[in-house]
C-alpha cells in the first residue's frame, strides 16, 4: 500500500488497491455488496455498502477512497461550473432558487429567489465557482449574507453553510426549478379593507401583481402584524377569491363590477366579515385618523426647517410655505405636514411622522423619520 493510502487509513487494509484502480468497478462492487447486505438488513443503504468497501481497502470513508482513486488516475474533479438553476430549502418555509449564468464575456453572474417570501431575481453581490467550491454574498441594508459550499460529486449537489444575521445553518442546492404561481387575470391592484376585532380596527391591504412568476400577493397590516407579509397562495374560481397565509385565510366573492370583494377573515376559531375595495390607481393608501393638530408660530416652524441627511437614502428638506411645514425629497413634489407638538409632525396624506430634536440654540439638530414597515431613521441637519 502506498504512503498516500496509509495517511487516510483507518486500519490495516484487508485488501490493496491495484496500481490503476477503476472507480466504476468499485461502484459496481459496492452495489454487489449492497445486495448481500440486504439479505440480512432489508433497508440497508448504498452508503453503508460503500463505507464497508472503503474500510476493506483501509480508508476512513468512501470519499477518501474515491480521492485516492482520482489521485492514482490523475483525475481532477473540480465539480460543475455552476451554470444553471439550483433549488434549496433554508428552513421549513424558505424555498430558495439560485440562478447562475455565464455572459458573452465569460463572466459568471447570479440571482436568487426566496420563493415563499415572493422575492425574485435578487442580484448576488459576489459569486465565485472554482475548483469544486461555490460561494456568494448578498448585501442588504441591514446585513451581509454569505454562502459557501463544496461540490458533492456522489450526490450531485452543492453542500455548504449559509450565514446570515449571525445565524448559521446547512444549505444544499440541487439542480432544478420551482414551478411558477398560476397567473390569475383581473385581480391586480391594491385591495384595501378594515378588520374590526375586539373593538379595534386593523387596516389591511392585499397587494396583487401578475408577472413572469405568476400572480403574487403580499399583505400590509400596519396596525397589526406589519407590512409586506408574504401571501402563500392566491386562488380564484370564477368570482370566488381566496388569499391564503400561514395561519390566516380570507375567502370572498367579487362584486359585479370587480372592484370589491365581500370576504370572511378566518384564523383558528375567528370568523369575521371583511370588505376589500380595489384602490384607484395612484391614490394614497388609507391612513388612520390624523392626530389633533396644534398651531405653531412662525418661529417654531422656522426652528425645524432645513435639510437633513440620512445614512441611507436621499436627504429630506423641510420648508415653511404660507404658515405650513412642507417636506420634499428629490424627485417628488412637496407634501404638507401637520404639527402635533412643537417638535412632532405627521404627513397629511401619508402614514409618515417626523420627530425633531432641538439643540441649545432652539433650532433642530437632527430628526427621526418614522415610516410604516421600515426601521426608524435618524437624519443630521446639514
A few lines on this structure:
With 382 residues, the protein is mainly β. The protein has helices at 3-7, 23-40, 46-56, 62-73, 298-304; strands at residues 84-89, 95-102, 108-114, 119-123, 126-130, 133-139, 144-152, 157-164, 167-175, 189-197, 200-211, 214-221, 226-230, 233-237, 240-244, 249-254, 260-267, 270-278, 306-309, 316-321, 324-329, 335-341, 344-347, 353-358, 364-370, 377-381. A nine-stranded antiparallel beta sheet has the order 4-3-2-1-9-8-7-6-5, with no helix packed on it. The protein has a nine-stranded antiparallel beta sheet with strand order 13-12-11-10-18-17-16-15-14, with no helix packed on it.
Poorly predicted runs are 1-9
Strand order of the largest sheet: 4-3-2-1-9-8-7-6-5
Number of separate helices: 5
Distance between the termini: 75 Å
Amino acid at each position: 500500500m502506498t504512503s498516500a493510502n496509509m495517511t487516510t487509513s483507518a486500519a490495516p487494509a484487508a485488501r490493496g488497491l491495484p496500481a490503476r484502480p477503476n472507480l466504476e468497478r468499485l461502484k459496481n462492487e459496492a452495489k454487489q455488496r449492497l445486495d448481500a447486505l440486504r439479505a440480512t438488513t432489508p433497508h440497508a443503504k448504498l452508503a453503508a455498502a460503500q463505507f464497508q468497501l472503503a474500510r476493506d481497502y483501509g480508508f476512513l470513508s468512501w470519499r477518501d477512497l474515491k480521492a485516492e482513486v482520482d489521485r492514482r488516475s490523475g483525475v481532477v474533479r473540480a465539480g460543475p461550473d455552476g451554470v444553471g438553476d439550483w433549488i434549496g430549502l433554508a428552513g421549513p418555509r424558505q424555498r430558495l432558487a439560485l440562478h447562475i449564468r455565464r455572459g458573452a464575456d465569460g463572466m459568471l453572474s447570479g440571482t436568487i429567489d426566496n420563493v415563499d417570501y415572493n422575492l425574485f431575481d435578487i442580484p448576488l453581490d459576489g459569486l465565485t465557482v472554482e475548483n469544486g467550491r461555490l460561494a456568494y454574498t448578498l448585501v442588504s441594508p441591514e446585513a451581509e449574507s454569505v454562502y459557501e459550499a463544496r461540490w458533492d460529486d456522489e450526490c450531485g449537489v452543492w453542500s455548504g453553510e449559509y450565514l446570515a444575521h449571525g445565524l448559521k445553518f446547512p444549505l444544499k442546492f440541487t439542480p432544478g426549478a420551482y414551478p411558477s404561481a398560476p397567473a390569475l387575470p383581473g385581480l391586480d391592484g391594491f385591495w384595501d379593507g378594515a378588520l374590526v376585532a375586539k373593538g379595534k380596527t386593523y387596516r389591511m391591504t392585499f397587494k396583487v401583481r401578475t408577472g413572469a412568476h405568476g400572480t403574487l400577493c403580499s399583505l400590509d397590516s400596519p396596525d397589526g402584524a406589519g407590512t409586506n407579509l408574504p401571501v402563500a397562495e392566491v386562488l380564484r374560481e370564477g368570482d370566488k377569491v381566496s388569499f391564503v397565509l400561514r395561519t390566516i385565510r380570507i375567502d370572498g366573492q367579487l362584486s359585479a363590477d370587480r372592484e370589491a370583494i365581500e370576504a370572511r377573515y378566518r384564523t383558528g376559531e375567528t370568523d369575521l366579515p371583511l370588505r376589500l375595495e380595489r384602490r384607484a390607481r395612484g391614490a394614497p393608501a388609507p391612513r388612520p385618523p390624523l392626530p389633533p393638530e396644534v398651531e405653531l408660530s412662525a418661529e417654531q416652524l422656522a426652528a425645524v426647517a432645513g435639510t437633513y441627511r440620512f445614512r441611507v437614502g436621499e436627504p429630506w428638506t423641510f420648508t415653511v410655505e404660507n404658515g405650513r411645514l412642507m417636506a420634499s425629497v428629490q424627485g417628488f413634489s412637496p407634501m404638507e405636514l401637520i404639527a402635533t407638538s412643537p417638535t412632532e409632525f405627521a404627513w397629511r396624506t401619508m402614514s409618515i411622522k417626523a420627530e425633531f430634536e432641538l439643540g441649545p440654540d432652539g433650532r433642530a439638530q437632527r430628526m427621526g423619520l418614522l415610516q410604516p414597515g421600515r426601521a426608524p431613521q435618524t437624519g443630521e441637519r446639514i
